[in-house]
């Protein structure tokens, strides 16, 4: 048999609907729109130079992810959270992430250790260089690693649809201060060390404390 040459796969281009969904999600997460801001199909259609159909399709997905709120007779608004809603979201996040990190360390410890360590090293670089936006993206990614390596599809689906986007948006808006980043980095170092040691009990305790601190910190920015 002749040796086959490596053949590069064709990458399917994004549809307009996928591109609009990704862009609008990114614009909400990265603070292009304010929390609670009203957005309209006409406004976004002009902004993205597309018809209203892909905007409507994006609305359906982003409402399911909790990033927008569609109010009858009032319009569509970027999400905002009361203190009570933030507490409920933090409780869901804790339940999912604590289960995820336990499963990930039990099922995929070596790849988890490798990727968490590499991610943490990049966080240190961003903190040292003052790249707050880069740091927050890596922060979000580090927590996603727990979910990805848990190998639990329904857990991952719930986390992606209910938790990840909203906390990423909160980090972008309210976690830019150097003092907060220093505190965050210290907490993530503890997490990294526990994961590298394979200590599930220590990792879950540190993660629980980290999420609890985040809840208290963001409560100061909650609406109402």
From TrEMBL:
- Superkingdom assignment: Bacteria
Q: Which residues form the HTH gntR-type domain?
A: 14-81
Q: Which UniProt keywords apply?
A: DNA-binding, Transcription, Transcription regulation
Membrane among keywords: no
SMART domains named in the record: FCD (SM00895), HTH_GNTR (SM00345)
The molecular function terms of the Gene Ontology recorded here are: DNA binding; DNA-binding transcription factor activity
Q: Which PANTHER family match?
A: HTH-TYPE TRANSCRIPTIONAL REGULATOR LGOR-RELATED (PTHR43537:SF51), TRANSCRIPTIONAL REGULATOR, GNTR FAMILY (PTHR43537)
What is the protein's name according to its record?
GntR family transcriptional regulator
């Amino acid at each position: 048999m002749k040796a086959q040459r490596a053949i590069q796969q064709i990458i399917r281009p994004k549809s307009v609907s996928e591109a609009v969904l990704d862009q609008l999600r990114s614009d909400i997460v990265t603070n292009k729109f304010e929390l609670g801001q009203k957005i309209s199909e006409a406004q976004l259609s002009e902004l993205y130079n597309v018809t209203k159909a892909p905007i409507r399709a994006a609305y359906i997905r982003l409402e399911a992810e909790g990033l927008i709120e569609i109010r009858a007779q009032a319009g569509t608004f970027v999400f905002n959270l009361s203190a009570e809603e933030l507490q409920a979201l933090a409780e869901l996040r804790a339940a999912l992430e604590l289960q995820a990190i336990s499963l990930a360390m039990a099922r995929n410890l070596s790849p988890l250790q490798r990727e968490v360590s590499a991610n943490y090293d990049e966080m240190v670089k961003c903190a040292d260089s003052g790249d707050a936006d880069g740091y927050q993206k890596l922060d979000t990614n580090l927590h996603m690693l727990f979910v990805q390596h848990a190998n639990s599809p329904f857990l991952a689906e719930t986390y992606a649809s209910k938790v990840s986007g909203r906390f990423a948006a909160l980090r972008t808006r309210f976690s830019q201060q150097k003092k907060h980043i220093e505190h965050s980095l210290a907490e993530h170092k503890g997490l990294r060390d526990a994961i590298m040691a394979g200590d599930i009990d220590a990792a879950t305790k540190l993660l629980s404390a980290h999420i609890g601190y985040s809840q208290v910190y963001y409560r100061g920015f909650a609406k109402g």
